Amino acid sequence: APGNQVKMEQPRVHQQPQVNQQSYGGGYQGNGPVVRQQHMTKPMQGGQGMSNNMHILPIRALNPYQNKWTIKGRVTSKAGIRTWDKGPNNQGKLFSCEIVDAEGTELRMTFFRDAVDKYYEMLQQDKVFTFSGGQVKMANKQYNTTNNDYEVTFGGNAEVYPVENDNTIAKISLNPVPIASLDPGSMTHADILGVVSEHSEIQEFTSKAGRPLTKVDLTIADNSGSSVRVAFWGDKGREIHEKLSNAPPNQIIGVKNCKISDYNGCSLSTMNTSNIFIDPELPQTSVVRQWLSGGGLSGVQSKSQSAGGGGNRGPKGVQDRHTTKSLTEYRLGTGEKPDYVDIKGTITYIKRENMWYPACPEEGVNKKVVQQPDGSWFCEQTNKSYPHCEYRYIMSCVVSDSSGSQWVTCFNETGQQLLGRSADDLARLKEENESLFDQALMEANFSEYIFTLRVKEEMNNDETRLRCSMIRCTPIDWTTENRQLIAAIENFA
Predict the structure, then answer these.
(1) Can you give the pLDDT at residue 35?
(2) What is the rounded distance in angstroms from the CA atom of residue 74 to the CA atom of residue 124?
(3) Phi, psi at residue 36, to the nearest 5°?
(4) What is the DSSP letter of 90?
(5) What is the DSSP-derived secondary structure letter of residue 254?
(6) Are strands 339-350 and 448-460 parallel, antiparallel or unpaired?
(7) How far is CA 238 from the centre of its chain?
(8) Is the pTM of this model over 0.70?
(9) How far apart are CA 74 and CA 173, in angstroms?
């Protein structure tokens, strides 16, 4: 029919430009992508008309040796625009998106400079488009989370056209893995699908760089019998919190493209390219729902260990305690914030050297003072001299349990509790009678407590070390302890 005729134009020949290789932000190289000039006729809108007028190449058939191709895919995710500025001749912007085709093959695409202005608003999530005029290259796995070995970059010669009323490509692209199989040691990203067993309130805080951050934590379990904690950041966190707050409990959700971390054993977090599906129409959804109705949540094992993470610093139950060995096994303290954990252990050694420091005697200052030639003590913070100082504990000791031992730093309050006397008294005792001083240390050894520790990995002489500070040492109430142990055993059974 005349309405279906497309006027063909003569192809234009274009010589590939030479570019100076310069480095700029985002992990890419060069002044932008090297693109090949291609001429494609504009496709007809609608799946049927388009298939009659041009050949669509499956994404799996793309390779760097092809110059002319057209692919069709549904946009599954789109990140925001990023810019770089490294001088007058090295400026630009880019954005990336991911698509999936009718065969379920995914592809990451990055648009540069003019293509950003032309196509960023057009490329909407869940819409179908045809793409041509780009360069196929090896995937940069630092940024590419798809399973494709290739990715495509587009510049000014990109040609993108919307395809209306095309149902050949599924709207949900999700390949969930069993939560029990998540392994931070061998996996970096994964899709999951499961039941939301609990979710936190919206948490707002500031990053070290001064940026405001928003997060919502969900615990998601599936029919593999395991659960994992997932952090939803920014707008994704606000959106999922609103939806779950207005919905019945135990919603089934799928999350595409989660980042896997070994923080607290195993945990997940969303990224810019992550997608969230509530009650998706997938075969796995029915399987999870049947597992849920059979009481599946009752026997779930968590892959995410409990830890304070800078939040709750209060004492925890016996089931939430760590051992000295698990501090390193679960890589506690390696996140942005320190972890706060409880350990039941015994003081087995107190280092007798450098147990205290001379502090300003003014209440609430606690800064170190320096002794002057006339015997007085000078404080830089108050800019005053004092006839005497106040000694405060900053001692090191070893906490041991059945799994091993750990060096711990004690400050003034916990030091006084362990030794039963102030640092001033102990310093005076050391001067007057060293044997009584040694006896005081021996009496403090082999005492058992519930220790609350602040755990943070720090750099020291270009090496990382785990620094543990004692926040609290609580004498054990054996009646309460035994009652909690019995309850924990009954829950475990």
Answers:
(1) 37
(2) 9
(3) -100, 135
(4) S
(5) E
(6) antiparallel
(7) 17
(8) no
(9) 9
Residue 130 near residue 119, CB atoms below 8 Å: no
Sorted by sequence, the CB contacts under 8 Å of residue 299 that are 6+ apart come out as 225
Element (DSSP H or E) covering residue 71: strand 70-78
Please report the beta strands in 325-402, taking only residues with DSSP state E, as ranges in sequence order: 339-350, 356-359, 370-371, 377-379, 384-386, 390-401
For all residues of the chain together, what is the average pLDDT? Answer: 83
Give Cα separations from 108 to 115, 155, 264 (angstroms).
Answer: 15, 15, 30
Tokens 């625009």 locate to: 81
CA angle, 176 as apex, 320 and 329 as ends, to 5°? 30
- The secondary structure of 199-251 as a DSSP string is EPPPEEEE-TTS-EEEEEEEEEE-TTSEEEEEEEEHHHHHHHHHHHHTS-SS-
Closest residue by Cα to residue 444 from 423, 466, 420: 420
**DSSP assignments along 281-326, one per residue:** SSHHHHHHHHHHHTTGGGG-EESS----TTS--S---GGG-B-TTH
Structure tokens at 85: 């500025």
Residue appearing with tokens 């893995």: 177
The region of weakest confidence among 99-108, 185-194, 263-272, 429-438 is 263-272
What Rg do the C-alpha atoms of the chain give, in angstroms? 31
Residue 475's CB is within 10 A of a number of other CB atoms, namely: 10
Residues 188-191: contacts with CB within 8 Å, 24+ apart?
A: 188/145, 188/259, 188/260, 189/145, 189/257, 189/258, 189/259, 189/260, 190/258, 190/260, 190/268, 191/254, 191/255, 191/256, 191/257, 191/258
**Whether 266 contacts 303, CB under 8 Å:** yes
Q: Which of 93, 100, 138, 142 is nearest to 119 (CA)?
A: 93
| Residue found by looking up tokens 């805080």 in the block | 205
- Contact between 67 and 98 under an 8 Å Cβ cutoff? The reply is no
Q: Pairing state of beta strands 135-138 and 189-199?
A: unpaired
Distance from C-alpha of 180 to C-alpha of 296, rounded to nearest angstrom:
14
The yes-or-no verdict on residue 95 having pLDDT over 50 is: yes
